[in-house]
Amino acid sequence: MALSPPPSPQSEVRTVCPYCGVGCGVLATTRGGMVTSVRGDPDHPTNRGGLCSKGQRLAGTVRPGDRLLHPLRRPLDAAGGFDRGRTWERVGWDDALGDCARRLTAIQAEHGRDSVAFYLSGQLLTEDYYVANKLVKGFLGTNNVDTNSRLCMASAAAAYKLAFGSDAPPGCYEDGEHATCVIFLGSNAAETHPIVFGRLLDARRRTGARWIVVDPRRTPTAAAADLHLPITPGSDVALLLGMLNVCLAEGLTDTAFVRRHTDDFAEAEAVAAEWPVERAAAECGVGGDAIREAARLFGSSAATMSLWCQGLNQSIAAVSKNLALINLHLATGQIGRPGTGPFSLTGQANAMGGREVGGMATELAAHRKLADPRDRAEVSEFWGSGPIAPERGLSAMELIDGLLDGRVRALWIAGTNPIASMPDGTRAEAALRRAELVVVQELFHPTDTSLFADVLLPAAGWAEKTGTATSSERRVTLAQAMVPPPGEARADWRIFADLGRHLGHGAHFSYEDAADVFDEHAALTRGRTCDMSGISHERLRREGSLQWPCPDRDSPGTARRYTDGVFATSGGRARFNATPHVPPAEPPTDEYPLRLTTARTAHSWHTLTKTGKVAELRRLDPGPILEVHPLDAATAGVADGEVVELTSRRGSWRGRALCTEDVPRGTVSASFHNSPLWDRGAWINRLTPAALDPRSLQPELKHVAVRLGPARSALDGLLVIGGRAAAPLAGALVGAGVLRLEAAGWDTPAPAGRPWCAVLDGGSDCREWLSTQGHSPPRDADASGRVAGRDGAYAAGDGVVT
Ligand code: SF4
After folding, report:
1. How far apart are CA 582 and CA 56, in angstroms?
2. What is the reported pTM?
């Protein structure tokens, strides 16, 4: 009798959640090379065993069916370029990277070193970020390496540096447990940072802390507030200046702190004087008494902490918004003590790690400055590289401009989906089409962006690679590999190191493992404000997470900075900054009378490449919903539940109206998750503008003037029949007007009375299927049944949308 094989042993591995900047510790169980379950790590100081809905379902994201398994490359055309009308072919790693290296070298030789660019991600681990940044700035000789963190926390980073002389927040999550007043600005932490929010809720039951929420919408966070200020989108600076005005008038400032520890108070005072409460109230659309109450709570509380997120950061006035809030903390002395301080919640799991390595076009490694010749010389000597260029590189949106006007010819994209997340998305599509070389290094294929790639490189993901991530509170946690990557996927840092080898710099990229990379990175931080030279993988594995600064192996790390009132500026004094109010780039007009603000929802992550694969999370996502005030809906001639169309100067969006008084009159709100791959009609970033904050270069994703009306020809659903490219290709081809896409395999018959389309994905399957269904192949198909086109091809069945 045959014996069944013994069950493979189970083991539990300590790691960190890869989604948001909260940085929750995770214990993951593996069996037979698979992640079978996860639970919150009870010993991790951030989450103490808790996980939100996304973290709880991490196991379901490790092996979804659309993993990119092998390097792929478009066939070459007669001129030696990539034939974008034909599908990718499998190639070996050496072929793929060798070809990329030759092309990058040739493009730089012909068009200059800044003709190539890299676009990274806050989802990468610090080691990935470090090697990419070293390769591009040190060895490719261009500072054109930016990251999707530009869309997320660039404004907070810029403000911290201007005010305190160093990036990153002064305090930590625990401050929320000591605060007697907490103010949330542009943050729906209840849904976007739920574990931190839960900690604050628990603490509030004990401390009785008063909560203020500044948000145009009545979010779950706002619903929990003692005082909700539903300000007009974009009016935050006016509010904060009005609050400072009240603090000045009512003696709520801490003059001793200001005198001892700050400079330039007069500049902030002068601007605040222009914003008496009634003027601020008129600008913000809230009552003057509410502003006074908020100022009194902020200024008179024993300990006030502020938390903010994209509501402040994604704006053309974002740095001013951040600085106006920091000014308020400095003026009232609400900083440097437990329970106080300005605290930006980072969106992505490792946005902070990217900042540490200087993985942005405007930064240099370990909080050094590109503009400082001594900093550049230190880093290039440490790396053994050529000189580092003194000029900043192109930021995320500027890379799009550069591709469109020919300054940039090659773009290497790692771990991010800019077609879905960039503002003015169709412009981003046009930019990628113009590139001579697009390399996409990704876990998944297809994504909205991978469809534009000439070369696709499979990357290892969560649970498949080791490295570190730094959370919002400067806490470094080790992410551990526990299962092998599928197919030929490799850790991102290793892909960049291998590219370095193919570019002829192998001696500088000969790392043994991720711990080796981390040690080099940590050594470069020695003596810097983000000093983590006391941290190593081995120590993190043994002791758990640590907060920087952590300058030696005996240091327990640092929960709070500036507790002695000495800041990281050259003179040790914090700086006030003048913060004039600047209205949004696109104010409402007669043609576009409403303000659209975009938001993240509780159970979805960014462009759905991970959470969209987890059925339970997908079911919890509300889909393309537009929150609209009932009176605005009536004015626009639409009703609750109806399919509506939103139009900005750049394009249209369709979704279902949700009439609610949770949004104020004149403002509508939609989530940003639905990408063109899922539903081109519900692609909200087709509407948003590419206007930038001049200091942080962060785009204004949170405010766009729109017009609302009934959908002209809405289609509720489309069944896409085909192979694995079915949904993305149909989504890309169908265009606006489909609210739900559903994909099915070739074993599915053509449905009667329901729109469908079949995807010709390069093989004979579609021809056979069409034949069994009694349909002829489309007239313009070639002999193999394929219709040429960049994004694949399709055949339209009866009653089908084209
Ligand atoms: Fe992960 Fe953030 Fe949820 Fe924590 S709060 S489990 S880090 S997504």
Report:
1. 41
2. 0.89
